[in-house]
Amino acid sequence: MEHILIIEDDDILAQGVKLNLTLAGFDAGIAPNLKTAEQMVKSGGWDLLILDVNLPDGDGFGFAKALRAEEDVPVIFLTARDMDEDMMRGFSAGADDYITKPFNVQILVQRVRAVLGRYRSGKEKREQIRTGNLEIDFESWRILKNGRELTLTPTEFKLLRKFCENPGIVLTRQVLLEELWDKDENFVDEHTLTIFMSRLRNKISDKEHSYIKTIYGTGYQWVGE
Predict the structure, then answer these.
(1) Which candidate in 24, 101, 212, 215 could, as Cys together with 80 as Cys, close a disulfide (CB 3.0–4.6 Å)?
(2) What single-letter DSSP state applies at residue 135?
């Protein structure tokens, strides 16, 4: 059973969405604000978030963007903001779908199923990736470039996987440091990260493919082919 978190301050609306998701076979929880949502997300176990934009303690766009830089979980915006520029901001923040109020709750359920289906399919394929002149198999920790095997260190593979799991998303240097080393309680400074990044880029890049773009003053972005 998939677990859906509804982040919505309108309790009547949230309870209605929760009821319909439950009837459709999902397990749903409700967070009335971003502070509660952040705590619930950190507890883990959520397969998808339904996120309002206008919340009492912040902006859903910023919450989604920060979340997608650290967590691999699909997000559907459910909001009254129906302007094109709002939808563009939503997708730029990492949304997998964008639904405007008022809405048909049965259509919402179907779109939840569609997003989860695409996500499951993509996750199954993510262990083996082909992009540009690279063939990457994360399960066996092998990478081929133009058919020839490259030698990557475990840390370089961790970096590569983090980028491949977050295509198009700017990963800050702090996020990369926390992902790779803080979880193991090993301290590595930013200078060491720069060295690892340089080595990885030198191995996978060539004149035709750069793969990783530097976002000066912020971090790095996987641009794929």
Answers:
(1) 101
(2) E
Instruction: Give the global pTM.
Output: 0.57
Per-residue pLDDT tens digits for 160-194: 988 888 888 888 888 888 766 644 445 557 788 88
Two structure tokens written together for 100: 């405007």
Length of the chain: 225
Do the Cβ atoms of 176 and 165 come closer than 8 Å? Answer: no
Q: Report the distance separating Cα 113 and Cα 119, nearest Å.
A: 10
In three-state secondary structure terms, 223 is strand
| 27 phi, psi to nearest 5 deg | -105, 120
Measured at the alpha carbon of residue 67, what is the angle toward residues 30 and 90, in degrees to the nearest 5?
Answer: 85
Residue 14 has pLDDT above 60, yes or no: yes
Domains, in order of start, for the chain: 3-124 (3.40.50.2300), 128-224 (1.10.10.10)
Region for residue 94 given its phi and psi (left: phi exceeds 0; alpha: psi -120 to 50; beta: otherwise): left
> What value does the CA radius of gyration of the chain take, rounded to a whole number of Å?
19
**How far apart are alpha carbons 150 and 134 in whole angstroms?**
10
Q: Nearest to residue 175, comparing CAs of 84, 83, 67? A: 67
User: What is the rounded distance in angstroms from the CA atom of residue 207 to the CA atom of residue 72?
Assistant: 31
Alpha carbon separation from 81 to 4, 54, 62, 84, 216 (Å, rounded): 22, 9, 15, 9, 32
Single-letter amino acid code for the residue at 155: T
| Residue 169 per-residue DSSP state | P
What pLDDT score does 188 carry?
A: 59
